[in-house]
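seq:
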Amino acid sequence: MIPDLASATQDQPPAPPVRAVIADDERLARKKLRILLDSEPEVQVVAECEDGRQTVAAIQSHLPDILLLDIQMPDLDGFQVLGEISPAQMPVVIFTSAYDQYAIRAFEAHALDYLLKPFDQERLHNAIARARSELLRLQDRQITHRILDLLSRVRSETLTGFEPDGRLVIKAKGRVIFLNLEEIDWLEAAANYVRLNVGKESYLFRETISGIAERLNPSHFIRIHRSTIVNVRKIRELIPVNSGEYVVVLKTGKELSCSRGYRAALQRVVDRNS
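struct:
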């Protein structure tokens, strides 16, 4: 059964109110603006301020979404108020002024709108609607930045390779794979990479064979050749050959040569398990 569209819309949680601070040194101007904002159901006034210092304190305390800001105020004017606010705390700014000569400077200060007193309900409503759209756009941008930051960390972890729990993080065929070290059968050098052989699968990992050897547990992984490291727990048998060397046979049936220079490490494994 297809749900009714109207019912589905009603089930959605209402959008949170836009939190606003009013800043104007004239009490009657603040009262009029408050009355107009009472007709805007999506706006919640969290503070009213009569001078610049109060406005700065209110912004830092309440972190509003919108600031309705007069220009000529005691202590700090509207532009000085904005100079006191950090970018992280800066709300969407709508200037409210009886003087039109500040309009160009207001937009240079990145104000969203400039309401010339006296303004009516419709003019204010349009400014609030623009502010809400701007807030949604900023929110989308913040989400995008967080996603990009996460992807950047994934890329960084992929290059670093080792998770705190000892797993390897590998990018392969558009996927990010978390590989437990005990799953690896053997490793082999491949130019500036190491090929990790895991059963029937293999993965390239950007690291030198010497670099990864230093980061593996020597009790579990031993180097048997300048280009080969083997997982001790994956060894099925050792076959002696000429000059005291071995062929290492894995449980998968794979045969690997142990060169003379690394015979001692392999011999220690034999002695430890004999």
